[in-house]
Amino acid sequence: xxxxxxxxxxxxxxxxxxxxxxxxxxxxxxxxxxxxxxxxxxxxxxxxxxxxxxxxxxxxxxxxxxxxxxxxxxxxxxxxxxxxxxxxxxxxxxxxxxxxxxxxxxxxxxxxxxxxxxxxxxxxxxxxxxxxxxxxxxxxxxxxx
Length: 145
Description:
This protein is of the alpha/beta class. The chain has a domain at 22-118: Immunoglobulins (Immunoglobulin-like). 28% of the residues lie in helices and 49% in strands. It is built from 2 helices and 6 strands, in the order H-E-E-E-E-E-E-H. Strands 1, 2, 3, 4, 5 and 6 form a 6-stranded mixed sheet that branches.
């Protein structure tokens, strides 16, 4: 009976580990918003999945630096044409660097979709081996009981 309970616990822990997390949303305000621009809008940078190091500038002003996010909401962006630079990746991921010119309008949210950096093959192998190690340890515990 104790073995069955332990096996159920191991399966529950494994199932919880496989669950996806909620979208990571970071909200910020453009640093120049303190200048009280008469008309301002909102820009949302939407990545295809959570990235650990999202960096965004708007018209040269740093808005977010190395933030873990899937969605970055920026308020106080002056209306008119804005140059938005989006960067992410490096290390175990490919690099993404995009420059977009967008027209920001008052009271309207401008959404910029961006493909997240791809994860390298080495990272997939590492993740698979570490997961395999966890399951082997759980199996060893079950056998020991």
